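Ticket #1630: bound-state structure for iron/sulfur cluster.
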Amino acid sequence: MSKLITVSPSPHMHGKDNVKKLMYWVILALLPAFLVSVIFFGIGALIVTAVSIVACVGFEYLIQKYLMKVKPTISDGSAAVTGLLLAFNLPTNIPVWIILIGALVAIGVGKMSFGGLGNNPFNPALVGRVFLLISFPVQMTSWPEPVVSRTQYADAVTGPTPLAIIKEGISDGIPVSELMGQIPGYFDLFIGRMHGSMGEIGALALIIGGIILLARKVITWHIPVSILATIFVFTGILWGANPEANADPIFHILTGGVLLGAIFMATDYATSPMTPKGMWIYGIGIGIITVVIRIWGAYPEGVSFAILIMNAFVPILNKYIKPKRFGEEVQNG
Amino acid sequence: MSDVIVYSIVSLSLLGVLAALILYIIAQKFKVIEDPRIDLVEQELPGANCGGCAMPGCRAFAEQLVKADDISDLNCPVATNENMAAIAKILGKEIAEKEPLVAVVRCNGTPEFRPKTNHYDGASECSIAHSLYVGESGCPSGCLGLGDCVRVCNFDAIHMDEKTGLPVVIDDKCTACNACVVACPRDIIELRKKNKKDRKIFVSCINEEKGGVARKNCKVACIGCGRCVKECPFEAITLENNLAYIDPFKCRLCRKCAPVCPTNAILEINFPPRKEKKEKEGTPAGEK
Amino acid sequence: MNQAKNFTKGFVRENPVFILMLGLCPALGTTTSAFNGFGMGMATLFVVLMSNIVVSIFKDFIPNKVRIPSYIVIIASFVTITDLVMEAFMGALHAELGLFIPLIVVNCFVLGRAEAFASKNTLFSSVVDGVGMGLAFTMALTMLGASRELLGANAIFGLQLIEGDGMLVFILAPGAFIALGYLIALMNKLKKD
Amino acid sequence: MLKTFPKGGIHPAEYKITAGKPIEVLPVPKTAIIPVSQHLGAPSTPVVKKGDTVKAGQLIAKSSAFVSANIHSSVSGKVVKIDNVTDTSGYRKTSVIIEVEGDEWDEKIDTGKTLKKEFGLSGEEIIKKTEEAGIVGLGGATFPSHIKLSVPKGKKAEVLIINGAECEPYLTSDHRLMLEKGDELMVGTKLLMKALGVEKAMIGIENNKPDAVEHLTSLAVNYKGISVHPLKVMYPQGAEKQLIKSLINREVPSGGLPIDVGTVVHNVGTAVAVYEAVQKNKPLVERLVTISGKSLKNPGNFMVRIGTPVSELIEAAGGLPEDTGKVINGGPMMGKALNTIEVPVTKGTSGILVFPENESKREEVQNCIRCARCVSICPMALEPYLLKAASERGMWEIVENDKALDCMECGSCSYICPSRLPLLDYIRLGKSNVSRIIRSRKQ
Amino acid sequence: MEYIVIVIGAVLVNNIVLAQFLGLCPLFGVSSKISTAAGMGGAVLFVMTVASIVTYLLSNFLLEPFNLMYLQTITYILVISSLVQMVEIILKKVSPPLYQALGIFLPLMTTNCAILGVAILVFQQDLTLLQGVVFAIAHSIGFTLAIILLAGIREHMDLLDIPKGMKGNPIIMVTAGLLALAFMGFAGIV
Amino acid sequence: MVLTLFVVTLVASTSLALIYEVTKEPIRLAALERKNNAIMQVVPEFNNMPNEEEFTIEVPGGELVLYPARMDGELVGVAIETFTRRGYSGTIELMVGLLPDGTIHGIEVLRHAETPGLGDKIETDKSDFYKQFVGRNPGDFTMKLRQDNGEIDGITATTITSRAYCEAVQLAYDVFIEKGDLK
Ligand SMILES: Cc1cc2nc3c(=O)[nH]c(=O)nc-3n(C[C@H](O)[C@H](O)[C@H](O)COP(=O)(O)O)c2cc1C
Ligand SMILES: Cc1cc2nc3c(=O)[nH]c(=O)nc-3n(C[C@H](O)[C@H](O)[C@H](O)COP(=O)(O)O)c2cc1C
Ligand SMILES: Cc1cc2nc3c(=O)[nH]c(=O)nc-3n(C[C@H](O)[C@H](O)[C@H](O)COP(=O)(O)O)c2cc1C
Ligand SMILES: Cc1cc2nc3c(=O)[nH]c(=O)nc-3n(C[C@H](O)[C@H](O)[C@H](O)CO)c2cc1C
Ligand code: SF4
Ligand code: SF4
Ligand code: SF4
Ligand code: SF4
Ligand code: FES
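RESOLUTION: The complex was predicted; output attached.
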């Protein structure tokens, strides 16, 4: 035998899934929602997405190569996922330079400062998004009209999201039944014909994406289900108590970033708990904080903040909520 | 003088005195007997109570200083070096003057002397490879070259030589902290007396197998032939389990042993070149 | 001690904010602009200098037991003086710095200097130390203020560089922490070189 | 629904290439190298010296401690050397080297093939014979079997579990054994039941061996108290604690032994070995080994004398293929890679796998992405990602408190990790350090 | 209701460390482990509450009637530092376990801006005594929440490879920044 | 020990008291000057001392201070120190100057805690927001934001502050109309 044989500790076999595949599945699962955005926001959706992905991947490459001096790992696709999700969280008429700042913050501050893939305590795309929201409140809160097959980028006609309409209206004391007339119907909300950030509008498409991820076992059901159930129940109670001062639970689920957040962003591996029980607490926390911000806070939308806030709790959840060890508590029968 | 001035003086002074008095009484009443050195140390500390030492307050830090056996890595960001020196004096904990030591790597199995027989593909830690098997060469004692010793050194005193695949100690940086000695799963590293001009002479092998076996796996292994033992005029060399060992405190650096070793297992480093003989084969590239 | 070294040590090697991480509250709370940072720095400089002087003069008369309370009273007096003088003659800045002026008294950096340095050194050394450290603190605050102002308002010392707003975050709390974080990283790098 | 354990587990591709290959007997080697340490516990002490002639089945090394086992010669011939020879552990260990002359067996041994069903021995006598025959667990751990049979005072065995799961990919030796030596297995099981004093035995078999399940079920009607149970195909179904959970739904407590929950687990091979030892006086001198691999010409299941060099076994299987990258002693999940094929087959060798080059190298490692897969598949409900990170940084307190010592090294975590992290490598490191710390604490 | 507003405002919306920049030295100094962070939180809770009561009485019955408000800083700090020392001495004698859990943090209180800051704010905001107490308790809960979250993340980061340049203080600062960023979501709740 | 502390506090209190005495007057003057400056900014030229003629009017939640400005005894305007508690971050205090007919002459921000970069645009030197009010009489137009069916363009993304500002001005105007018989 001329070659040297290899010696390594067991196991000697390995599963087929790898990081790259998982990330590309996420991208694939986001495609339906992306198509919905292209239909309703046209060229803007394309430009925002392209700029965001290229910027995120590019910044990751530059930071790894020139600042950290390690081998760039952009091909694992995680930066592309961050870029895509950042784009999904922006209005489609946002100036390109703002996207660049958002990408730099998401990747540079949110991810690479902590050592890159898997090390970040906060969801990078949301760090980027919230940073922009607070820095550029004007640009971040004017959403273009959803019209099929638009071709120009910066559209003059902008309008508030359904959530903003409801929130503003309720704070002015207008009954919800009246406000409902000002927003698109449930079917439109379901397919995505509404004002909003690029990727949050198409409920149906997002659910299809979620089913893909669940079927491929990229994510587990615990986080999405616990978030959606909590929001449903919490807003349901408020609505039941006073249907004229609170929107109904279906409305809350379909609008804003709830589905996008619950399926794609709260499930981000690095920033979510490791055990099912931890995931439940995390999901319920996100649900409650989302509703609290939506109903009582300054912002009409709270999912991004809720996820970031619960991200901060994840290390503590991981530390104190452990799987029940085999043989730990013997209940023999 | 206006009223305000009078009131100020009266109230503030009274407050000061009151505070001092109450404190004094309470301190007397609730006295707890403690190691008096804690007070002394605390006085030396800046008293900024900033938490910079990662302790909750100067007193806690003082207690830790008094308790700790080794205070060299307890650090207060506010205190000056003089403060810390004074504290060390109070505690009598400065490291006693010892014979200076330095870490020495006792394996010279470079790839040319010790060919690879297989390829290791596990996690890059000597301790893991060691618990798995003999290593990439056939020598069960030889350096695994995965650098556990390098990683534990806090002083950048040890690095891997790319060519030889063996660790190299930089004598000037080494503080003889023993970290690498503990880290090496094969006990290859030894703290030896630091000689003048960093001169070293030692058996660079710890393989205790029989000569033939050892030599089969590594050309520069000590084969336990005992020639050096006979050669040494100071009885500094002992032979046990097929392995010669030079006692660093008995050795007088006479260099007589090195040339007689048939496998060149004895290394001499930082000596002037020998006149008659040409460069010896066994000197590792990194340590010439 | 070498006085030049004594003077310069605080700027990089022992910088109270970037390296020692002391006095962080004013460092973050008052640095919405370069000018505010500078103002806060100078106010602190005054207190450090004066308390260093007084402590170093009277160090031998103060028994150990009441050392800390006495120092605190001394420092608090100078803080109050600063407070009153600023209110009288620099009303606008006083209003901006607000709560953080009285809080100089609890700035561990000030007490630390009195304790660690002035109580053990000569008057002259203490003055040099006070001025050096105070300037270093001022420099740190001004740098932080300048970078936050630059990023947050596209301006520096009130001078508008680019029209329009900057990244508002940097004027607000999160930006303060983040800006300081990266400044510290930069300083660490400088310290090494 | 098939029985299985509730938490964790993986399903690697099975590659049971040799499942249909009947047992072949490998010729006696020219030289046998018999290490004196082939079991868990203290090495045995050689009782022969250079120059002695020995017969097959003759004692050549004697058990030297409580946990230790006798070693017998597997061949007849002359002892040429007692020396350190590399064994499957990768280190050189004391071994008796015998140059083979003929194939003469110790006269007490019955080498015939006839089934001896009846026995009149007491439990103690069975245990004694097991001990004398040097029988150790053939399921992989090579723990001396007689110790497991001697139930400690205050404990009581209620049921014997026979482990026919064979959950490792590639390996088929237990499968073939169950098909071809079903009756011997049944008698062996009865012997074990007698030794333990239990009335009930359960044989657990993964359901990817339906023929074995069927065969043994049909035999079991003739043996009172023995039942056969198909199990869900799920690695590590064959691991002791998981098997107990699957079959009788009891959890062996952390740090405990099966006997704590009233059971003892033995491998099918062990049961057959006990049959031969008790009924035929035959010590453990040969074992069934699967030799397999995708590019081997003639993979198969061979009955091999202990001490046969692995290289000879590979020759019998068609020689080492050109593209060999790795040779594994055992299964792909738990087996040990060999650094040379010049090592002897020992009591613990259940298989020799020859992996082609392209499957031998590990893939590039990335950061842990905290996907929680390792946590969800760990059958012991540990957190491999955490244990790895803590071990890597020497944070032994975390390693200990988070139960690294419960890890049975099944390798599922390393298998599943999408970042290709060598989780188990580091967990082992952590385990050995924590054990060391605990030991030093006790002193 | 009024008290709920004070509590939510202090804990979430205007968190004392994340939004008001008070008490940062202990926030960064004592947050390397969750357990010490919790101890620090407990000590802050105790001292902040007691200090606010004492300084409240001092201002309302001594300083204000005699027009001595300009002595606020110096009297407050005197009172706080002696109070802290007093409590420490008593605790050490009376309950050594409690001293081990909380007392060792007490010396840090004198130089903690949060204590003096909250005492001054109670007066500046014209609160009643009861409101002041709730205000102080709420602020210390906010402090505890922030320091425990930060400690959790820091413990988590001990198990990661933080890039060289960011290791230590820089990354802790950035983490605190991101924490503050997340907490901005509570803006406007009260 | 007690003595030392006594001496220290004695010295401290004495010196502080002295400094306080010295700075008391400048502090009062500085505050007065700030107020006078504000008054001067918002009303036409006058030659009386408005702060000597000041009077307060109770309103729900606080009180407004009115400073009549006269030129040779003739009322030329009133500066009204008004407030609102509905700012984004608490109270906003304005000095609103009205001409005798109620027309707004000028507005100055005395104190606010609005977000820098957002709400602080109500300050006169930070944006032109206030100019929408100057020269107009609240009696003649709806002094509300556009989204509230008024005529004022709010500062972008700062609805709450803008609305609060309108309210404070409206309050000053209402009080002036109601109780503003100052001649
Ligand atoms: C130190 C040690 C002591 C053991 N003692 C006993 C025992 O007293 N009784 C018993 O039935 N098994 C005993 N065992 C055997 C274990 O139960 C188990 O069968 C063996 O370790 C192999 O299991 P595995 O292949 O699942 O690792 C012992 C094992 C070890 C390592
Ligand atoms: C992960 C794992 C997988 C195992 N798989 C099997 C198996 O498939 N078949 C088997 O007989 N033993 C297997 N074992 C060993 C058993 O746990 C146990 O040691 C053995 O069945 C005891 O019997 P023995 O002492 O007769 O070997 C496995 C052990 C581990 C840790
Ligand atoms: C950090 C922060 C600061 C804010 N500051 C102000 C402010 O000073 N004034 C204000 O009216 N709204 C402020 N807001 C509230 C939002 O900008 C809010 O969306 C806005 O008041 C109402 O939206 P619109 O003006 O776009 O209709 C702030 C929000 C945040 C998160
Ligand atoms: C299921 C899933 C969800 C993800 N969600 C996000 C996300 O919300 N934001 C983001 O920046 N990256 C996301 N990523 C990509 C990647 O995990 C992320 O950049 C890591 O946080 C980097 O450490 C996701 C990846 C997966 C597999
Ligand atoms: S670890 Fe210690 S003994 Fe070893 S080389 Fe470094 S300084 Fe020297
Ligand atoms: S000397 Fe020891 S620790 Fe260092 S590389 Fe060699 S085997 Fe590893
Ligand atoms: S499976 Fe791998 S990547 Fe996933 S959490 Fe475990 S160690 Fe991390
Ligand atoms: S090897 Fe250990 S940690 Fe990994 S899955 Fe198996 S039992 Fe769990
Ligand atoms: S400066 Fe605020 S706590 Fe130190």
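RESOLUTION NOTES: Chains C and D do not touch (no CB pair under 8 Å).
TICKET STATUS: resolved
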